[in-house]
Design brief:
The longest helix is centred in the C-terminal third of the chain and has 24 residues. Strand 10 and strand 11 form a beta hairpin. This protein folds into three domains: 60 residues, 3-Layer(aba) Sandwich (Rossmann fold), CATH 3.40.50; 84 residues, Helicase, Ruva Protein, domain 3; 174 residues, Ribosomal Protein S5, domain 2. A seven-stranded mixed sheet has the order 7-8-6-5-9-12-13. The chain has 16 helices and 13 strands. It is elongated. By secondary structure, the chain is of the alpha/beta class.
């Protein structure tokens, strides 16, 4: 057993990954593996190696190629509940000397610890929290105080563990414009994720915030291009995208986010913001979008569906090719959900928007031109005194000169005629 093989590091003293290449290689090389410390060959061809890792991203590709990968998904809430009942609580009761005291946890108390005091894929912290509760119970018993044998949520919060540490995200309570709910896979299980979009006056820029990766940014660009290509179908004015900026924000900005599965969610949020049509708050979705509006399959469906169910979502939109992944989802969860399989954005728009996918914003009304004041009537004009004309000081001299020039011209003409 080689535990946490993804934590290997190389330095000046050597590279353990190079040695493992010989150890884990088929019988062609590891039948005579020689250790550099003992300098004695070992036959490892019939040894079965099991390695563990939290992620395969940091394992060298050559070493990863020699291993068969078996992925174990994280425990869901129901599985953690049963593990706590059957294993963790009896073990902690024995460690704290309370196995004979018949102390029990209510189901609500265990669910509160799982949701609000731990955030993990496994049960390590869950075991620690159960141990902390029972240790305080053992201390009270040692001090001679009376103890309650049934541990309930109010007692858990007020006396044993203190204020809650994690607040799970829940579904929205009403339909909103420019907001859509996505379901995402995380190392600690699935989570829902609200994507917000604002459209404001600008120059046609697209801004994405919330510490999103390159793949998610490309999905946003593809979603915006799809909406622009359907502008005529949506009855969007031609100049809208040139005169407005689109801002996409994914909350919890301190947590890095990446992946293509939020493509259709960003497309729905942008469509809702541009058209002014609200989205249905009880609907969550996941899927990759193409420029033609096709929906491609994604991974982590089991965790995503369970996360949506915990958050109070009632309808989930999944790519059609992910239908096979629902085999891993517990049947009681599927009975309480409405799963809709989609292949194109047209189907997503019908299920996710609370109204018709048509531009609903009214253009701003231009104010009418100011009216000219009414013309005065004839009677009023008669009453008005005519304006006095101001005479130019040189006007009289100019008149005399004109008359003199005319007379001299007549005399000249008569003289020439007489000649």
């Amino acid at each position: 057993m080689l535990d946490e093989i993804d934590k290997l590091s190389s330095d000046i003293h050597g590279d353990p990954a190079s040695a493992l290449l010989e150890v884990l290689d088929p019988p062609e090389q590891n039948y005579s593996f020689s250790d550099h410390y003992l300098e004695v060959p070992f036959d490892l061809s019939k040894v079965f190696f099991i390695t563990t890792a939290n992620t395969v991203q940091s394992i060298p590709p050559a070493l990863l190629d020699r291993m068969e990968i078996i992925e174990f998904p994280g425990y869901i809430e129901e599985e953690k509940l049963e593990i706590a009942r059957q294993f963790l609580i009896p073990e902690q009761l024995e460690e704290n000397g309370l196995q004979d005291k018949s102390i029990e946890f209510t189901e609500d108390a265990l669910r509160l610890i799982i949701k609000s005091y731990t955030y993990e894929a496994g049960v390590r912290n869950l075991e620690r929290m159960i141990g902390a509760v029972l240790r305080k119970t053992a201390r009270k018993l040692a001090e001679g105080e009376a103890i309650e044998k049934l541990i309930t949520p109010p007692e858990l919060v007020e006396e044993r563990l203190g204020p809650v540490e994690f607040f799970p995200i829940t579904a929205e309570l009403q339909d909103e414009v420019g907001m859509a709910t996505a379901v995402a896979w995380t190392e600690n299980g699935g989570e829902i994720m609200q994507i917000e979009v604002l459209v404001m006056p600008g120059k046609g820029n697209l801004q994405i915030t919330g510490q999103v990766g390159e793949i998610m940014q490309e999905s946003a660009q593809a979603a915006l291009s799809y909406i622009k290509s359907k502008a005529e179908n949506f009855q969007i004015p031609d100049s809208l995208f040139e005169e407005t900026d689109v801002h996409i924000h994914v909350p919890e900005g301190s947590i890095p986010k990446d992946g293509p599965s939020a493509g259709i969610t960003m497309a729905i949020a942008m469509t809702s913001a541009v058209l002014g049509v609200p989205t249905r708050h009880e609907v969550a979705m996941t899927g990759e979008i193409t420029l033609r509006g096709r929906i491609l399959p994604v991974g982590g469906v089991r965790e995503k569906v369970l996360a949506a169910h915990r958050a109070g979502i009632t309808t989930i939109l999944l790519p059609t090719k992910n239908q096979k992944d629902l085999i891993e989802v517990p049947a009681p969860v599927l009975e309480q959900l409405r799963i809709v399989f989609v292949e194109h954005m047209d189907e997503v728009l019908k299920e996710a928007l609370a109204g018709e996918a048509i531009y609903a914003k009214k253009p701003k009304e231009t104010p009418p031109p100011p009216r000219h004041p009414p013309r005065p009537t004839k009677n009023k004009m008669a009453q008005r005194t005519p304006p006095t004309k101001q005479r130019h000081p040189n006007r009289g001299i100019t008149k005399v000169l004109i008359q003199v020039i005319k007379k001299s011209t007549v005399l000249c003409c008569a003289f020439f005629i007489s000649r």
